[in-house]
Amino acid sequence: MKAFLMCVLVCVPAAVAIAADDPYEAALTALPQQHAHTNSNVPTVAVDEAEQIALQTNPRIRVAARKVTMAEAHVPGAGALDDPSAMYRGWQVPLTKPWDYNAAMNMFMVGQNFPGPGKRALRSQLATDTVSVAKAELEAKKREVSAAVRKAFYDLLRSRDELRVHDEQVGIARQAFEAARIKYSVGKVPQQDVLKAQVALTKLIEHLVMLEQDADLSRATLNTLLGRSPDTPIEVSGQHAIPAQIPTLAELKQLAVQNRPELMASAATIKQAQDEVALARKQYTPDFSANVGYMLAPSGSQFRNNYMIEGSMTLPWLNRRKHESEISEARATVAERQAESDATSLTVFEQIQEALVRANSAKRLVELYRNSLRPQSEATLRSTVIAYENDRTDILNLLDSQNTTLDVDYAYFRALADFDERMAELEWAVGAPVPPSGPIATASPEVTR
Description:
Elements: H1 2-18, H2 23-30, E1 44-45, H3 47-57, H4 59-78, E2 85-91, E3 105-114, H5 119-185, H6 191-225, E4 235-236, E5 240-245, H7 249-259, H8 261-281, E6 288-296, E7 305-313, H9 320-389, H10 395-430, E8 437-443
Parallel strand pairs: 1-4
Antiparallel strand pairs: 2-3, 3-6, 5-8, 6-7
Helix pairs in contact: 1-2, 3-5, 4-5, 5-6, 5-8, 5-10, 7-9, 8-9, 9-10
């Protein structure tokens, strides 16, 4: 299309020079032709397919998945015992014969530390809680990316529909231009009618540039969300589906409690803090260590070969101040995370309320354009075209009717895309697909004149 516009700018002077006897014919030749805006060689992608691709290839989702893998890798070692130890000790080695170990006491020992009962299980549980939090964050990222994919998808779908409307309007504008030129040639209308019709056609070039800019930006956003290079060719296919009724706020809240990943993550962090309290209390349980060893006595000893057993335990009751502080800190963490959970719940319910209000408003706008404004503007435009061709109205009424129809069509497709985007926001706020209430009406983007 950019190449086409450059061709227009280059060819206008030449066309005017060739058709000097009819400058309007040259202007008509230079104006935009109806053409295809999509690449038929590029496979089209439906919205569900785009979401599935994004869930597998989106970089942000892959980062969150790596965090889950890291958390899972930590679980097996969280409750493991400390490494066993080995020790050699030599004493009573004569200073005058430091090499004479036969005259020394030699001891070889291995030992192992054992945490107090229940501590290892709690440490494993804390690691498992971390996995639960990471998985909830991964699900939250997936829902966020899915909502962004749907928004970009419907933006690109809207651009496709608006380009189709643009081509329809180019055909109608050409018809008006031809009619004005013929009437001017026979003296029925002044030259201003032809010039105004020509300006209306030329303004469509400006519309086309902006429409294609929007399409290119939406295409780049969608490609990025799919983990592709922004300039990768991609086309979308699908229709807008408008449910007869959107679920109520109470139904959506209940759905969010069961599915919203952020709420699940909050519950997991509270559980993790509670386990930390239990582990802090377990610090009053003593830890143990056991050692066994072999002793080699000096030559000439009555019992040269000996063994040794050694055991020890910590005395946490003597360090009560430290452990009470740890317990208090863990309890404060539980209270903090509970408060954060309450705040998250309020935020989620606010997001659901806002998304529901926007979705209902967008639905009403779609119905208004579909059932009233669009049919009225199209009927007005058809009658105005016929009236102008039969000399029953002037060019200003025709151009005004065309502009009104164009604005209504663009607003209709924006309302369709806006409704789908609001539903994507609502599903993100809920954390799950929103089940439709009642029959679904398919909104056809086709333009009939």
